[in-house]
Each structure stands twice: as structure tokens, then as C-alpha cells.
Backbone:
């Protein structure tokens, strides 16, 4: 039986208020060269990543002091709470550093550990996807839905970066890649928004964390799709890093089989 979700209007409105704040900061930051450092995992981080997340955390704590926060740049807070905000201040920091405008801010609200509300905000293209899990999804206020996919062989696939995959995962992805029509690389969270809008069929990634995917999952599932790990498990804060987002739920078993270890 499908779980009844809490009322979402107030939370979604506040999530958009957070996105407004992050957008203003990113638009200003885009006018100058970023200050970049390399994290322990060899990924980029900029002063803007940290400043945006600090601002969003301040706003959340002021509005909902009993909620938890799961973010990319700072220590997590109260992640066992019923409601937890999941933040990626700049998804696609490498694109931000290079001045390629596919980077955005991901803001999600998890309920009981699962994606509930999501915002994907892209300042430089003036695009914002919003959604509520299994309920609704929008692009710039207009409803969006995922599209049907008749066969695995006809699928148009996206992958943010196969370099994030371990050798065994890359071998499984390569096997899948040979069975589909085309794979588009790059795009960061913009490609997940495009999937929600019915522009592609599924996305496959690895090496991700909850803050990379919870907002995308709420929106895609609000648009009629499904987001799981490669083995079909539900997303969680301690997920294994693999992500499979399918616009057409009926294709999920085929994709899981193609990505299987054997």
C-alpha cells in the first residue's frame, strides 16, 4: 500500500525560497573566476559551494530548527529526524569552474529517510524543476511527465561521468551501453531534469551520494518515473552510490538485468 505523504505546499514553497537565495549567489559568483581547491576525493570545491550551503543551512535552522540537514560540504545534523533537508549547493562544480552552465543547486526534503520534495535550480539557463514524490513535477511552473520507452534497445541514456565508476561498475555499464541507442555524457543534474521532462529515457550513474540525487528522485518520481540503485533498492542516506533513474517504470527490470554483476 502506498504511504500517504505529509502536506507539501509549505515545504515546497520554502524549498523554492532556498533556491531563490542560492540562485542569487550563483549568478553573482558566475561573474568572476572561482576560488578552487581539491578535496580528499579529488573533486573540486569552491568558496561559493561552501558559502551557498552555509546560507541555506542558516535559513533552514531559522525556519525549522527541529529538522535535520544532510549536506555535501559540512557535517550532517540530526539525520534521524522525520524531516531532513538534503543539500548540494553546486551540483556540477567542475562545470561551474569551467563556466559551462549545466551546474545547479539541488535542494531536497526527505521524509522518514526517503525523497519527498525536490528542487533542481539552474541559474544561468533560468530553469527550475520542482516536484513532490509520486505526486507532481514542474519545469518553470508547467507540469512535466516522463515519457514511455518501448524497448531497452530504443533508449536514449544519460550518464554524468563514467569516470566516477569503479572498474567493476564500468564493466557493467559498458555492457548496458552496447544495448541502448545512445548515451549522452555530462549534464550533471540538468540531465535528470531533462529526464523528468520526457527528453530522455533513463540515467545511469555511480559514485554519488544522497545529496546528488534526492532532489532529482523526488522530481522524477513526481513526473511518473522511478529512481533506485542499480540493484533496484530504494535510495537511502547510506546508499551504495549507484543510481538508476528510469522514466518508464516498466523498463526498470530490463535495465537492472543489463547492469547485473553476472
Residues:
Amino acid at each position: 500500500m502506498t504511504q500517504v505523504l505529509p502536506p507539501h505546499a509549505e515545504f515546497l514553497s520554502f524549498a523554492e525560497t532556498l533556491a531563490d537565495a542560492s540562485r542569487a549567489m550563483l549568478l553573482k559568483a558566475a561573474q568572476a573566476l572561482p576560488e578552487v581547491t581539491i578535496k580528499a576525493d579529488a573533486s573540486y570545491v569552491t568558496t561559493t559551494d561552501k558559502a551557498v550551503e552555509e546560507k541555506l543551512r542558516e535559513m533552514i535552522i531559522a525556519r525549522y530548527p527541529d529538522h535535520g540537514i544532510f549536506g555535501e560540504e559540512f557535517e550532517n545534523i540530526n539525520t534521524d529526524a522525520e524531516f531532513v533537508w538534503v543539500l548540494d549547493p553546486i551540483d556540477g562544480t567542475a562545470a561551474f569552474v569551467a563556466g559551462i552552465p549545466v551546474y545547479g543547486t539541488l535542494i531536497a526534503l526527505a521524509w522518514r529517510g526517503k525523497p519527498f520534495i525536490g528542487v533542481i535550480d539552474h541559474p544561468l539557463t533560468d530553469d527550475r524543476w520542482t516536484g513532490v514524490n509520486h505526486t507532481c513535477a514542474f519545469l518553470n511552473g508547467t507540469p512535466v511527465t516522463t515519457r514511455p520507452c518501448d524497448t531497452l534497445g530504443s533508449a536514449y541514456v544519460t550518464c554524468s561521468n563514467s569516470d566516477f565508476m569503479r572498474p567493476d561498475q564500468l564493466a557493467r555499464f559498458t555492457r548496458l551501453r552496447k544495448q541502448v541507442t545512445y548515451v549522452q555524457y555530462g549534464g550533471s543534474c540538468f540531465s535528470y531534469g531533462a529526464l523528468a521532462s520526457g527528453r530522455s529515457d533513463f540515467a545511469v550513474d555511480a559514485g554519488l551520494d544522497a545529496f546528488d540525487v534526492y532532489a532529482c528522485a523526488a522530481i522524477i518520481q513526481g513526473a511518473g518515473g522511478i529512481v533506485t540503485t542499480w540493484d533496484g533498492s530504494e535510495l537511502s542516506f547510506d546508499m551504495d552510490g549507484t543510481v538508476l533513474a528510469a522514466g518508464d517504470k516498466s523498463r526498470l527490470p530490463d535495465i537492472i538485468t543489463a547492469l547485473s554483476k553476472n
